[in-house]
Structures
1.
Amino acid sequence: MLCRLTKGSFRRLLPELLNFGCLPGRARGNSLQGLAARNDVNEPLRAEVVVWIAALGSIPTVAPDAAPLPRAKALLREADYIPRFPKDRMVLVHYFAASSLLNRFVAKGAARKAEIGEAYYLLGVIESRVGRSIWISQTASCFEAAIRTAPGEAFAEEA
């Protein structure tokens, strides 16, 4: 039952998490609050959902013309202080928010190559922390894009 509940719930919640910057403040977390209030949600998941609701409330909306790269880096720094163990799902909101900003930034393609390369690098870092693919991980693809886009930058060497 939990797998079905979680899978269906997350499918409906992902658009909310990924479009966090486009939602008015009071609309953020409404679906999550409904999930937390359900009787059939176990306590570990409920605890994570409560943290996600708080995280959504703490992340300010981002203006469309704002510089997304510095904001994404700040979200990743914040996420570094939250986890209790590797792959802790408590930081998913931070990772989804940063990923959303970075993907939009890369899609625009209007920045310098070094900035786009860094965005790909950060997407690879995020994917390495939250990706759960058993087939092909996107981490390597993101790191490869970072290296190909800006091979002379410091992050390319780390990738």
2.
Amino acid sequence: MATTPLGSGLSPETRASYDGHLWSGPNYARDSAGVPIEAQGGVPPGIGTNYEKYLLAFFSANGTLHTQESTNGLIWSNDLTHGVFAVDQHSRPSVSFDRKSSRWYVAFRRSDGSVFVHSFSATSGQATSGNEVPDVRTIQAIGFAVSDLNVPAGSPHNRLMLAWRDGVGPIRMKHTLDPENWPAGSGIDTGIGSESGPFVDTNFGLVRLGVTGASVPPPGEDPFRFGEGPGRLAHGTVSVIEAKDDTFMAWVRFFWVDGGTTSAWFSAGNVQRVSGLPPRAEPATRTGLDVSMAFGQEGNANDLLNVTLVFRRFHRGVPDRRQQEDVALEVEHFGGQRILGDDSTRPFLGRMNRWDVANAQKDATVQFTQGHGSQLPRFRALLQPGDQVLVKMSGDDGTVSHALTFDEVKAAFRARSDAQLTANQPANRVSYTVFFIAESN
């Protein structure tokens, strides 16, 4: 998933997930010195995949179109620039790949409402080409995809497909086998209504649109038609619909979520959601702009660890015979440094609810189940290199902590047995040794 936070001086961010529920912390588009590249404020990024690499497309502060590559959606490299364009918050790039010609395509709306399609060689990054699609004007982001639908065997290109919202009217489409020559005219009236710009996806000869607020078909009929008065879905309904044939004038709805959003979006603040046992509080990722997503390869299995840390027992570093104390365990997850070398730029990603153990013996090893029946504190996280899991223990002598690194968690995960950490910072307080295991999710 690719997003750009609202505000100036901020970089495009990407996050990865195995299941769409638990997401990694942010990663950033960086320059050759490792400094995050400032995005043009208010312009969302786009992301796509050819199932070997991901491509991130975004506009930097002066309107320069950048692309970067990644094998896992986490670490980005090979920063290329492709010209300067006048763009705005409705210029989210759509990224797609043509296997026949081995070319990346980046299509986007310019601030004057026109649509521009840029392409370049996936192997060299060169042999660039760019064309304005004739007779297209829109006020919202466009959808673009490359399809093998009805492509002749001898064609050097697959079919390029463009979808856009015609003012406040229906979604229109154009397609071509010649990237240098798009057809003139107003395009195909699909008859599909939407509150926002469409998304386009093609796989195995199928063409699908993602739209919002589209109308419900009459009883007994499948096609979505624009402008039906009765039975409309609620404002913000997200629908995915599939073309019945290559005329793109008849469609079948096969998925929808009713109400609540006008596009896929997240916005800034401290809203938290709770999940897991015990609950894990996570700050919502927030932006007022469109987001982009791609489904592709996972990269190296060691790049992203989906683990649950199970804390089993502990003991004090300085025993105190026949004495007791109340002990609390807290766990927090922080992402990698946005500014390399500056720990204060680590984003907070989530925390486990505080786990209290009352009347813990100061001269004994104490089970975290004490006072909790058979339950143990568990913290689920999606970790990547550079992340930290901060484990804090609080008792009569104050709070001490240890920052588990990605490599430490990976070692515990591979060991499949008890690992231990020593919470001993600051060093002038009584330490605690904590035993835990790292389980696979």
3.
Amino acid sequence: MINKQINIDNSPEEFRFKNRLDNDVTNFITDLKEYQNLRDLYNHINKNLNIEGDRIFPLTIRINDGYIRSKDLKTYYCNSELYKYFFLGICLELETPISLILWVGSEDKLKEKNISTYKEICSKLNSKEIENIVISEKYLLGDKAKNYCHILTFKSQINFITEENKFFSNWIYFPFLKRSAEVFMSYFSPKFSPNQYDSDKQNYYINYFVSVIKYNYSTGQNSINLSVLNGLNTYYQNVKVSIDNIDLIRELQQNNENWGFALFKDITYKKNKLIREIILEKVNFDIIPEDILCHNIVQRAYYNYLLTGRLYISSENKLEEIYINLANGLSYLKLNITKDYSEFYDIYLKWFFVKINSNIYYKPFLLTNYNSQKDLSEIYNSYNLELNGKEIPLELLKWDKVVLPLMFIYLYNKHSKRTLIDRLRKWDNKWLINT
């Protein structure tokens, strides 16, 4: 059983956490410098080691899913009263939870514009609209504390886009949030996690992840016991987590015979000692068995990408084999799959993967608008050469503006998810998909 609250002072976890604080920024910046074609980006990092947004790509931030919270903070600069507003969200390109920081500023025109934007965001948070925020041009990735999950807007271009595709709007489907029992307690990098200030917990770091769960019982005030499904097979493990929502407890009790999805908030804070707490934020039982099968397959394929850095996942035959094995395993949990592989792929997997010559490739959100197999094949070929430090042929150089952002995202994932990757490697390559 895994405890809901962990005192990590004087423990290997505390050492790893503090080590991340000291080393993750240095390692990330060094990686950017070592890749020849990313050196131009490295050369334009400012003195605070912030990355200028117009030198990478626009960022799409998911809002209005129930786990976004906003707060404001008053500060002063040159005797002027300034406000900055925090919004927690999910960045689809960077594949991580982020903190969007909207600086109101002191210039009248800028102040008016940013207050208007703030009110519009708040309005959408309180509505039932499914919206994404797209941030482009003059934004900074990183703050003075060198936290690369903080996106600072100044004179940024901010647009709102209605996303009707559930696979890009519903938290249960995002590949990069998926976690199973084997890696449930994987640590996150504090330099790639939103951190905020609270009167009780002072400075605390936040992360989010999604698992397949089943309610067992209450273990006392504000804590419950859950079964969490494995990812490599259909066994499960019991965990103890925090919960502070009475309505959520009732929903769990009413669905105690059912498997569902759970969104967890993973926080670490200093309160006399360094404390880590995992809190159940939200559940979704309005699902079918294929949703759970999708969770396991997409998680396995995404972890393969994290471990190798390659966008190539497997042959189509191998992916179908994984589908069959996991579908058979789910039947023992009375979760019967009614769709064959082809139908399942067309409904669930085509949003995150692409077939090229009977091979399956991961398709990051950055490539959403690319549908030509010829173009994607050239992009994947160029990316693979870049990843391995090989020379890019002249005919593929036209894809630099796509491939270099993909390289940046891989390096970002490599450091933001480093502890997860380290834990995956301890499984003797069982998470790798052998083709």
4.
Amino acid sequence: MTIVTKIIDQAIGVLLFAYLILSIIIPSSGYLILGVLILSLIGLMIRRYSLPLDKDEKIIFFSFIAYFLSALLNSYLFNIDIRELDSVSRFILVLPIFLYIRKSSLQTEFIAYGFAVGAIIFGVGLISYKLMNINLFEFSKHKGMITFYAGIFSISSLFFLNKKRNYLSLIIFITAGFLGISAMLLAGGRGVWIAAIFSIFILIVLNPNYWNKLERSFVLFIFVFLFIISFAIPNSGTFNRLEKAYTGITEFISKGDEARDYAKGFSVMSRLEMWKAGVLILKDNLIAGVGLNNFKANTKKLIQEKKISPKIGTFNHPHGQFITTLVEQGILGLIVLFFVIYLPFRVGLKVKNIRSKDSMPYIIILTTTLFYFFYSFTNGIYAHQNTTLFYALIISVASALLKRDSRQNYPSE
């Protein structure tokens, strides 16, 4: 390792750490990744020795390319403006970063502590706002996105806990878990709650740190306890969000067509109506879909035919990544999307006999893929540049670190 490559690796670590923290405060902080990309390209020119991709690395690398090519083919078939590929292009943008990180000496702690500090900042900020009406920074514009990030950060932090870590690290990760999960629950994002509940249960079953039953029960207790507390706090919003969800579902089921008039009033009913529109559109477009961002145009036809409520005529996507991909890109696009989430998850599962610090990349991969999978049922998570970049970046970096650390023989430079 030369002095130059060491500086590059440290600079990349600092930029990634800053990006994770700023994603809570300024969700449009993706410009920092441009610096990571430039440094990675410079690093690849310096570290020019050959390091062939192994099977798992090829799986992740080519799944990212396949997802982009699937969207590109769809835009060609339906004559879609090339600018509609802006979000999905993030999967290609991160590939040089992936190729460099696997050769670098980047420390996983830059990512892990970025998660922890981000969760703490979110927790302090939102709890101060909810309980003391002190607005430390703006949440309202990107509340859903910030809460989603915080969910990943805080639950990952809980699973970073390990007996072999030093006392300060344990305090940081425990604080991040408590504050981040508390604030996530108080923020009122039902889609995030669903993703968090399923993710934490699966992580407890997978047990990446090889905890005993008591330790796993303790983590589960923390989550359940915090959920009950957030539910019991007066004016917290948790109860109201659950009540609205229940009311929306029962109204939609019981009133049928009449419930459409209320679709704009309840977000749950809006989603149900949009999903219904998606199913109607799919009847004649199951294989290839109707084209990227063409949901709204097809919805207008259904409204004219009085098959769905006009209240949802302003929505560009049916608020669910799986249904959105199925409507816009058909069954072929949905299969590619599934593999983009499943294949990194599978790579993480293949790692065995994980030692203390080595478990961090594994936990990051599992938590991120699980959150994105379950959140994709209720939100169009890959329709936004910021959340698409976050997924592509975190999975590529964590996967590169995981495979690098598991590689027994490092070539000399």
